[in-house]
TrEMBL record:
Entry annotated with the keyword Protease: no
CDD domains: MltG_like
Keywords attached to this entry: Cell cycle, Cell division, Cell membrane, Cell wall biogenesis/degradation, Lyase, Membrane, Transmembrane, Transmembrane helix
Catalysis: reaction(s): a peptidoglycan chain = a peptidoglycan chain with N-acetyl-1,6-anhydromuramyl-[peptide] at the reducing end + a peptidoglycan chain with N-acetylglucosamine at the non-reducing end
GO molecular function: lytic endotransglycosylase activity
GO terms for biological process, alphabetical: cell division; cell wall organization; peptidoglycan biosynthetic process
Protein name, entry field: Endolytic murein transglycosylase
Classification via InterPro entries: MLTG-like
NCBIfam families recorded: endolytic transglycosylase MltG
Keyword Membrane: yes
Functional description taken from the UniProt entry: Functions as a peptidoglycan terminase that cleaves nascent peptidoglycan strands endolytically to terminate their elongation.
Annotated site (Important for catalytic activity): E225
GO cellular component: plasma membrane
Length: 338
């Protein structure tokens, strides 16, 4: 006959079991809070991408296997109301850093910041993007830009909105957290110079610095007008053909830049805006670039296709229809619903 476990002894075993489980859970919980990151060395590099949220970052760190416990971390953050906007950048974090301290570091910003400028951004677009990274304010950036020494290949003209419009090359840059506006501007102009050297090699042409302004102005229009890759050199040919024919360029992108604000639809009233950038009111090219173009648009400006096209109309698939006659242009405008 089996011996029955005495009731008191059974209760003791159950209590002990619960205590052991609770103790293990507490140790696991405390470890996840006191030392949430896993790394082989004494520190770990954490990169926060632009626009990434705190929970999005934790989710990624969990997938990468460097976060001890995603669910405990998330619970602790919600319980203590630690969630807030984190700043993009690169962070060198000690593996002994607590979860609370880690989040505090993310709110302050890393030791380096990644800045990505898309093709076609204007100076003011760039200034807004720079401010979002936490490097310098938009106001500080624009002030520094106006005061920045003009490189010899830039035509200084007080009628321009910004002398350096077009020369801040769109790319991905990494800056130290304490970088100044002048550091950012210098990096972009330096990159522009590098790209122009590459362009000379690729085209097999000697491009003189005195021609930069014209090339950049045409390239900036192409960048704003082209929606698909194959249209760049065709739009470039239309610009060149209209200039050779002594025709007004009449390009909407120059009107939008003249207005100083984006518009999906340009009205007849908009076309009357007085500005040295408005190609509906002024013959020839605008007074300077209307954005900061990428390499492909610069190449298209240097080597346009050989066509007789004088007009183009945007199609529903975002490509353009090109034609040499005004009559055909009007027919297609009506056909496409303009």
């Amino acid at each position: 006959m089996k011996k029955l476990v005495k009731p008191m002894r059974l209760v003791s075993i159950i209590i002990l079991f619960i205590l052991v489980i609770s103790g293990c859970s507490y140790v696991k919980y405390k470890k996840a809070i006191d030392s949430p990151l896993i790394a082989k060395g004494p520190t770990i590099e954490i990169v926060v991408n632009e626009g990434e949220t705190l929970y999005g970052l934790l989710e990624r760190l969990k997938r990468e296997g460097v976060l001890r416990n995603y669910y405990i971390s998330k619970y602790y953050i919600k319980k203590h109301n630690l969630g807030a906007e984190i700043k993009p950048g690169t962070y060198d974090v000690s593996i002994d850093t607590s979860l609370e301290k880690f989040i505090s570091i993310l709110k302050q910003g890393g030791y380096s910041v990644k800045l990505t400028i898309p093709e076609g951004f204007s100076v003011e677009d760039i200034a807004t993007k720079v401010e979002k990274t936490g490097l310098v304010t938009k106001k500080e950036f624009l002030y520094a830009l106006r005061k920045y020494p003009i490189p010899r290949f830039v035509k200084d003209d007080n009628k321009k909105r910004y002398n350096l419009e077009g020369y801040l090359f769109p790319d991905t840059y990494t800056f130290q957290k304490n970088a100044k506006a002048d550091d950012i501007i210098l990096a972009m102009i330096t990159r522009f110079n590098q790209v122009m050297k590459d362009v000379q090699i690729e085209t097999g042409r000697e491009i003189k610095e005195k021609d930069y302004e014209r090339i950049l102005t045409v390239a900036s229009i192409i960048e704003k007008e082209a929606r698909v890759e194959k249209d760049r050199t065709l739009i470039s040919s239309v610009i060149e053909n209209r200039l050779k024919s002594n025709m007004m360029l009449q390009i909407d992108a120059t009107v939008i830049y003249s207005l100083g604000q984006h518009k999906d639809v340009v009205t007849y009233k908009d076309l009357e805006v007085k500005s040295p950038y408005n190609t509906y009111k002024n013959k020839g090219l605008p007074i300077g670039p209307i954005c900061n173009p990428g390499k492909l648009s610069i190449l298209a400006a240097i080597k346009p296709d050989n066509t007789n096209y004088l007009y183009y109309v945007l199609k529903k698939d975002n490509s353009h229809y090109f034609t040499a006659t005004y009559k055909d242009f009007l027919i297609k405008k009506k056909e496409f619903g303009y």
